[in-house]
Amino acid sequence: MDPISLIMGALLAGATKGSGEAASSAVMDAYAAFREALKRRLAGRKPAQTAIEEYTADPDTWRPAVETYLQQAHVQYDEAVLAAASAVLGAADPVGAAGGRYAVHIYGAHGVQVGDRNTQTNHYGSTPRATD
Fold first, then answer.
1. For the chain, which ranges sit under pLDDT 70?
2. Number of folded domains in the chain?
3. What is the DSSP string of the chain?
4. Rg (CA), the chain
5. Is residue 123 part of a domain?
6. Cα angle for residues 58, 19, 66 (degrees, 5° grid)
7. Residue range of the domain that includes 51
8. What is the model's pTM?
């Protein structure tokens, strides 16, 4: 999973599984720590903070804005935020976490695609010449 998707997934998982009486204390604690780490990273970026709050209520509408704000703040390189996001997803989905579903290891990669049931075609280098 790429770092931005990990963060956005943790936002939704924590908002949905970290609320209500049925929520486990592990999810709620992990989500609170994640939100605090994210808040520190986005300090002074009020539009980004507002977009994140709106995203948890309406993900489809706010996804592009949140992705942009997170990238502008270089959140994808913040190890504390990534670790906290992984903890949320691990608490919310222990089976998926144990299977490596939320592991992020993308260093110097080209043509990376993360997710389930994807298709990707990559063409590197120069365009092949047509043959006679």
1. 1, 17-23, 93-120, 122-132
2. 1
3. --HHHHHHHHHHHHHHHTSSTT--HHHHHHHHHHHHHHHHHTTT-HHHHHHHHHHHH-HHHHHHHHHHHHHHTTGGG-HHHHHHHHHHHHHH-HHHHHTTTT----SS-SS---SSS-------SSPPPPP-
4. 17
5. no
6. 30
7. 3-98
8. 0.67
